[in-house]
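Support request, please re-run this one:
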Amino acid sequence: MSRIFHLAIAVQDVNSSVQDYNERMGQEADVVVDGQYALWRTKELNLSIRKASSGEAGKLRHIGWEVDDVPQFTCDKDCNGILWEEFTAKQQAAEIEAAWPETGYKPKKLKPKKDKKKEEKSGEANP
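Re-run finished. Output below.
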């Protein structure tokens, strides 16, 4: 079973964070809800950001795992009080759709990231 680490953080400004994290992640967000929410999915990380409540910016909202197959979305707290979730990409998409139906978000199949250094060495990179 494939497991992708999920990290959810609260941010002060979603739109500025999307610009910043697009660059840091090396890809565009998979879904953006203007001023409210964004999600990036890679083979290694499922990262979501959400507009913070007053005084909550920069704080962890929850962590967990995106998995290939789990019967239902689960959520519990660890011994430190940190919320852990486990879900499939489709279950996460349903949560996004329920909160923001206008997105029409459907998860795409994840592709492995290209290794730019490897491409440069083999001469495959475009100038």
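The chain has one domain: 3-122. The chain is about 25% helix and 30% strand.
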